Amino acid sequence: MPTVPAPDPLHHPASGPAARADKAARSVRELFAGRALGVPGTLLGAPAHPRPESRRAPWHYWWQAHLLDAVVDAAVRHLAAGDRGRAQALRRDGHRLLRGIALRSGGRVDGNSYYDDMAWLLLAVGRLSTLDRELAGRPDTACLDAGAALLARLEQGHTGDLGGGVFWNDRHDFKNTASSAPAALAFVRTHRPEQAAAVLRWLEDVLWEPRRKVYRDGVRLLAAGSGSEVTRLEEGVFSYNSGPVLGALLELADAPATGAGERARLLGAATDVVEGAAGAFTRELGGRLVLAGSGGGDAGLFTGILARYLADAARHPGLPEESRSAAAELVAATAEALWAGRREFDPAADFHAAGSPTPAAAGATVAIFSPDPARPADETQRPGVRVELSTQVQAWTVLEAAARLVRA
Fold first, then answer.
1. DSSP symbol at 214
2. CA–CA gap between residue 404 and residue 333 (Å, rounded)
3. Which of 36, 205, 273, 394 could disulfide-link to 304, CB 3.0 to 4.6 Å?
């Protein structure tokens, strides 16, 4: 089991769930955030730390969407604690980030080729718009415009081809859970319950694997013509796919138009997803189950996405107590492991200096978190090795999820 750095012993109030989430938020801001293309009034997360020297750094649109979600998480947490000033500052950061995404995308948020990427950003933009209403008393035009544009693109990917579901990208040759799940949740949140229900039914009919209680990857169109289609089922399973399906099931169950019988069915399906996640996407660490890491790159976000929606399940009164407790324990144990395995350092010090001790002034440090909760950062993110934004947003998301459970 990774040891906890001395400056922040676990029993100390400064290392409580909210403080841990704050440390992750500050670390990501300090190490990765900067202006988009140097333009004032914008914000963007660099793909890695240290930042690539080339101006032709890779562009990861959907990493920015999850960064925006984490910014909103932090704002909501501060608002719940009564700190409107900090919540307002984070809200402003959220709008700077949205402007940065649009700028880096060529001036429009809906110019992406991948429907799953746009679905993730639509979910984050919707939450930012809700925050606007709570803090400013009115929606922001930029959020409304971005949301409308993203929703219009997402609806283009939801067709009757291959029986339903949402295409992965604008080549329209692959429908998968990765796009259909966040799209279903986006349809619930934009008051399209029939559309959400149709996508969820397709996922259940085509991609649900009842033995392991997980969703398979997708269905690929190999050929079409003469009234027939040749397809191939892609059997792979990925932890993050269970997350937004779980969120969509829970939120559709709570939709005003959902009848009692359908609500019970949806909550039963959500219970199965929690059980499947606990069985398929975990490993034992120190006698507790934690969510397993999936690596770096895009996969560096997978565990965080699942944790976000497990936290929602843990707080949902319609689920059985056993399911709620299992979801809460997975989130809490994963957050604990990430925190225990972190490495802190002075951001003014040389990042490449191996073996530098953790400074005593913990409040002035930043933290690097492991992509794998079961392994400490000293193993997976050795000093001087470039750290990816995706893995650090993932850790921030998990720590925010754990803090949310304490507020429940």
1. E
2. 14
3. 394
